[in-house]
Design brief:
This protein is of the alpha/beta class. It has helices at 13-22, 42-58, 75-86, 100-110, 122-128, 158-163, 199-210, 237-244, 257-266, 276-289, 308-318, 342-345, 349-356, 447-454, 491-498, 527-533; strands spanning 27-31, 37-41, 66-70, 90-93, 114-117, 137-140, 156-157, 179-184, 194-198, 222-225, 247-250, 271-274, 298-301, 321-327, 334-337, 367-371, 386-391, 414-422, 428-433, 438-440, 443-445, 460-470, 474-483, 510-513. The longest helix is centred in the N-terminal third of the chain and has 17 residues, at 42-58. Bound molecules: adenosine-5'-diphosphate.
């Protein structure tokens, strides 16, 4: 017997319809790429998205065709995002921080047909355009007054383009399992791989992410997604904010501490989200200027481990709650968030920070397990490390064009390539990416734990721990440190600071100082490059 409920396919454009209908005057405020602050609202974004859909269809974009964007977080990017998926196309957010060769690779691999670009990236595209045969036309996200003289094929100013359309269009009624968007993983090893989101997966994921124990947002919130729409499906905020009618503040191209602080304060932001490197810049700015965070209630930090010291500073000094989050492009992307369940809600001080250092527990829609290398499940005892595997309706089943082959185990779980522990309350803690784990005397040392500890030293700006070959132990940890500007701390002082806080045999054998630690296009420490840099390194006395 079937249920007698309506069949209401979970299509992403229903989200912007809902926002326009019930939260139509709620604002979207952006720092435009041209400079000034721009204000619009959900009703107007929807109206322009309909024009985008109409224009793309007139340009021959059919259901399933990929349309690329190379853009910062602005209202125009939001209009284009909904316009593309609204005509049955697939938004493909390209990360402009990738190397030009990688950008060309993924545009070709996705076979994008139209490309929307911000002004910032026109020079970059001009250099690679002759290697992008599938792109039929470029649309520059600006107006006629700012339009550069460009060699890009058929380049049009976005505002001129939509001015010629009336928006008399009905969203394409695709199957809810149809592709809506795609995003490539940054491919720290091998070529980037395409993750393809469906309408259904995006809708379910956004609903799960909004739950009170997850992002916990409401129509009264003012959200500033610093995390770019091109990073891991924009952490789904381009769906989440309109779904509940939160005011949305878009930072455009400027993500430095001063610019973000200005927006946080001037727009009354209550919740913001980004990777730790962004918050490092904001906290440094606040330290230098003595600024405060007067409206911000919650900061979501993920993409890399959030150091304990960062959580402590936000909470104790600025009164802002930290929500540690973990996820990946393949998971749409949110996997776990570290809100406090009853078992932990009463904790304070160091005990509370101990929990907040974990990446947290999953929402309904994410199933999790840890296994050994042979696939045997490991206990949730907070101690045993294992390969972290996940399953759910917004988790990749395969990569675009079958790259990488079969990626699920026999029970349908996807191996995240992260190594983690899980405690009895279901809180997961990442100890490493599997390829970064340090194996010493047959045991694993967590590089993330050591890094988090080292950045707690007041003179340390950033720290990375890598394994260095060792004749007796196979590998031993080397701590690589960037000092804060003007500080002269020595290695021994940092090691003394760390001693006693981790097992003795985990302690780094040495400290090396560098001016800069290399980062990936998504702000993670680039351990492969760092390992190459230190490939000839020998520990003192070796
Ligand atoms: P990319 O691989 O393209 O850089 P992703 O955002 O998909 O971008 O990366 C996902 C990976 O980032 C995870 O598998 C994990 O290794 C790491 N990661 C994400 N959030 C955290 C976190 N809170 N703590 C530790 N690692 C994290």
């Amino acid at each position: 017997m079937l249920g007698l409920m309506q069949d209401w396919p979970l299509r992403c454009h229903r989200i912007i319809d809902h926002a326009a209908m019930f939260h139509g005057r709620r604002e979207i405020v952006s720092r435009s790429v041209e400079g000034p602050i721009h204000r619009t609202n959900y009703a107007a974004v929807r109206a322009n998205a309909l024009k985008v859909a109409q224009g793309l269809e007139a340009a021959g974009i059919h259901v399933g065709d990929r349309v690329a964007t190379l853009g910062w977080n602005t209202w125009r990017h939001l209009e284009v995002w909904y316009g593309i998926l609204g005509c049955g196309g697939v938004y493909h957010t390209v990360n402009p921080r990738l190397f030009p060769d990688q950008i060309a690779y993924i545009i070709n691999h996705a076979e994008d047909r139209v490309l929307f670009t911000d002004l910032t990236f026109v020079p970059l595209l001009e250099k690679i355009a002759d290697r992008l045969p599938t792109i039929e036309r470029y649309i520059v996200l600006s107006d006629a007054a700012h339009m550069p003289d460009t060699s890009l094929k058929g380049a049009l100013a976005y505002e001129d383009w939509i001015a010629g359309l009336d928006g008399d269009y009905a969203w394409k009624e695709v199957d809810e399992r149809a592709a809506a968007g795609m995003c490539y993983t940054s491919g720290t090893t091998g070529n980037p791989k395409g993750v393809v989101y469906s309408h259904r997966s995006n809708v379910l994921h956004s609903m799960a992410a909004l739950q009170a124990d997850m992002l916990g947002l409401s129509s009264n919130d003012v959200v500033l997604p610093v995390v770019p729409m091109f990073h891991a499906n924009g952490w789904s905020l381009a769906f989440g904010a309109p779904m509940i009618g939160a005011k949305c503040v878009m930072p455009g191209a400027r993500m430095d501490g001063a610019s973000i602080h200005e927006l946080l304060e001037s727009e009354g932001v209550t919740c913001t989200a980004a990777v730790p490197t962004v918050w490092l810049m904001l906290l440094q700015h606040l330290e230098e200027t003595g600024g405060s965070l007067s409206t911000l209630k919650k900061v979501v930090i993920g993409g890399s481990a959030c150091p304990r010291a960062m959580t402590q500073t936000f909470q104790d000094k600025y009164g802002v709650e930290v929500i540690h989050a973990w996820g990946m492009t393949e998971m749409s992307p949110l996997g776990t968030m570290c809100s406090l369940k009853p078992a932990y809600a009463g904790l304070a001080g160091e005990a509370r920070l101990d929990i907040q250092e974990k990446q947290g527990h999953p929402p309904f829609t994410v199933e999790m397990k840890i296994t050994d290398d042979d696939g045997n499940e490991l206990p949730w005892d907070d101690k045993t490390f294992g390969r972290l595997k996940v399953r759910g309706p917004a988790i990749a089943a395969s990569y675009f064009k079958g790259e990488g082959g079969e990626i699920l185990d026999e029970d349908g779980y996807f191996d995240t390539n992260d190594v983690a522990t899980i405690d009895a309350e279901g809180y997961m803690r990442i100890t490493d990416r599997s390829k970064d784990v340090i194996k010493s005397g047959g045991e694993w040392i967590s590089s993330i734990d050591l890094e988090n500890l080292a950045v707690g030293h007041p003179d340390v700006a950033e720290a990375a721990v890598i394994g260095i070959a060792h004749p007796k132990w196979d590998e031993r940890p080397l701590l690589v440190v960037v000092r804060k500007p003007g500080r002269e701390v020595e290695g021994q002082a940092i090691l003394d600071f760390m001693r006693g806080k981790v097992a003795n045999w985990w302690m780094p054998d040495a400290v090396a100082f560098v001016d800069e630690i290399p980062h990936t296009a998504t702000g993670k420490i680039q351990k492969t490059t760092l390992r190459e840099q230190f490939s000839d390194y020998k520990f003192p006395g070796q």
